[in-house]
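Progress note, sequence design subtask.
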């Protein structure tokens, strides 16, 4: 049996909220919106708000870093599960003001989609303050070939991004500057972790150990994802050598993400992170060996941070992060080493932030408190050229999906996890119900598209719901912009431009691009053809693109994990792509 399967708690179901209440008890300057599980500090001065969040189980990240000098809010999901969009929206409402907000989250699909959708919804409402999303990917265990679509995973280096971006925000910088420094730091981060065993999630059955007594795993993720290799348990010195060599090695083109020169001029910040069950005694030894190794390679260590920053519950393991500082000889660098260090050294009082010396190492020998929510911007309207036909087209599209449920389910049982048909059917039925109940009136398409975005978010769920919601949120914003620019009704040109803009919004949060055997294949084909071929011709192009997915190798989505040769032999289209075809077929005149 794997170790660490016993826990101290009331119930697994209340553990996250119980923990957040304890955090607020510890630090009365932070507040808790218990219903949406948002830890925040009420705004006291104009600044770019910093938000983060994700699944719980990584404590002190992310809630423990809410406080002066760091995050303004953290949105907490269940253990290892992304928070939902409503939670993220609440976090934005509580802390976003005129200077806007930067959401900094680790690069995982659920977080990217849900935080991204919340950002788009906030922007589409016309509320004060722009909102942007920065995804942090610092894991060097993920090769470029593996991460072609999804990119690198986010790990403990994310904490350094929080700290630096927040310090610049405190200095009065605008959103562009805060986002820019965050992106720059992300481009110079490398992290690699090692674990002696997987962690155990409270409330789940205790599993068997997958490692021998003398083994450890290199490159493990923080959600029990398998590592890249199993190694024999060895000394800390050997482990540190293995990890730091991989982070600094520029000869390995698959993992050389950080531009080290390795010529004696490199300067770094070192972060030594406990993954949950490493003792302070052991962590001190790891820190000592890491600094020794870097100094032996003539890499100057300008700052050292060591402690528990981002855990994987009770995982016995640690990670090392290097932030490569700007080179003194690089005149094109947007920041100097002194500036980055100044931001890191700036005061911070969040409970999770550890004491630091702010100098180079020596040579080694309760109650919810509501915040005022900004008022909505002035409402704008955009009429349809024919409100009855507009609603009729939506109903036809929904009925087409409902009729297609059996075939979509059958396709997804082969090419995915079997729920595509039921997911799309649920969204379609909810939209028809909204039309019957008068929630969609066909009088103002901006409002109607917003209602549809909310429905698919609430009633579809999962990745599909997030993707559709992001698209409709982008469509609503584009229509709002068209109305603001003087459009009074939805002409074919307005629909074409708005759809293209919505696709661009969607592409901010998914790396899937045609041909990828996903729903973007027919969606892009339809949108690109719409201006020149009209609805009918564009629908035919969408159909062709959906059919083509039978022959494609999946590059993204659940199909990427299925035997590709088997999919080709069975000539199964991607169910998500087929669902898009059924929708556009309905729009142009499908009759059940």
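Output:
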């Amino acid at each position: 049996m794997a170790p660490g399967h016993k826990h101290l708690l009331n119930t697994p179901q209340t553990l996250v909220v119980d923990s957040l209440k304890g955090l607020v008890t510890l630090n009365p300057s932070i507040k808790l919106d218990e219903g949406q599980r948002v830890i925040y500090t009420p705004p006291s001065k104009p600044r770019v708000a910093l938000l983060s969040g994700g699944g719980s189980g990584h404590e002190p990240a992310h809630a423990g870093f809410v406080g002066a000098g760091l995050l303004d809010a953290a949105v907490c999901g269940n253990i290892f599960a992304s928070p939902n969009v409503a939670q993220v929206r609440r976090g934005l409402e509580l802390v976003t003001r005129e200077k806007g907000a930067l959401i900094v989250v680790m690069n995982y699909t659920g977080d990217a989609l849900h935080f991204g959708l919340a950002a788009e919804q906030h922007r589409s409402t016309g509320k004060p303050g722009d909102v942007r999303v920065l995804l942090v990917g610092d894991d060097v265990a993920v090769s470029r070939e593996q991460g072609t679509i999804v990119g690198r995973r986010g790990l403990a280096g994310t904490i350094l991004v929080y700290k630096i971006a927040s310090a610049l925000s405190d200095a009065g910088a605008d959103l562009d500057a805060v986002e820019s420094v965050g992106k720059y730091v992300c481009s110079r981060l490398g992290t690699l972790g090692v674990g002696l065993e997987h962690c155990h999630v409270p409330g789940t059955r205790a599993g068997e150990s997958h490692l021998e007594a003398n083994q450890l795993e290199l490159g493990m993720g923080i959600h029990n994802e398998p590592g890249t290799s199993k190694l024999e348990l060895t000394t800390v010195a050997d482990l540190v050598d293995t990890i730091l060599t991989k982070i600094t090695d520029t000869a390995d083109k698959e993992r050389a993400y950080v531009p080290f020169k390795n010529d004696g001029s490199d300067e770094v910040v070192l972060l030594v992170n406990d993954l949950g069950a490493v003792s302070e005694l052991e962590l001190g030894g790891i820190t000592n060996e890491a600094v020794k190794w870097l100094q032996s390679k003539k890499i100057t260590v300008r700052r050292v941070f060591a402690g528990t920053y981002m855990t994987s519950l009770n995982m016995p393991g640690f990670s090392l992060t290097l932030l490569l500082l700007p080179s003194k000889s690089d005149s094109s660098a947007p920041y100097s080493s002194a500036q980055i260090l100044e931001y890191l050294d700036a005061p911070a009082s969040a409970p999770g932030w550890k004491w630091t010396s702010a100098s180079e190492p020596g040579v080694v020998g309760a109650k919810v408190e509501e915040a005022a929510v900004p008022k909505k911007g002035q409402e704008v309207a955009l009429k349809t050229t024919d409100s009855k036909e507009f609603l009729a087209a939506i109903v036809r599209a929904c009925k087409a999906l409902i009729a297609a449920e059996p075939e979509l389910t059958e396709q997804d049982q082969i090419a995915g996890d079997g729920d595509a048909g039921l997911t799309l059917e649920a969204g379609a039925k909810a939209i028809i119900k909204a039309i019957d109940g008068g929630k969609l009136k066909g009088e103002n398409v901006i409002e109607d598209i917003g209602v549809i975005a909310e429905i698919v978010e609430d009633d579809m769920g999962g990745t599909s719901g997030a993707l559709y919601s992001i698209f409709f949120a982008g469509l609503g914003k584009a229509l709002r912009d068209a109305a603001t620019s003087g459009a009074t009704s939805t002409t074919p040109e307005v629909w074409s431009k708005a759809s293209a803009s919505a696709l661009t919004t969607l592409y901010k949060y998914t790396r899937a691009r045609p041909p990828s055997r996903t729903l973007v294949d027919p969606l892009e084909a339809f949108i690109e053809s719409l201006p020149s071929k009209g609805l009918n011709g564009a629908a035919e192009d969408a159909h062709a693109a959906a059919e083509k997915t039978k022959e494609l190798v999946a590059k993204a989505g659940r199909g990427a994990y299925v035997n590709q040769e088997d999919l080709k032999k069975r000539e199964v289209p991607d169910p998500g792509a087929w669902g898009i075809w059924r929708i556009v077929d309905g729009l142009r005149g499908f009759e059940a």
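The chain has a mean pLDDT of 90. Work on this subtask will continue into the next period as scheduled.
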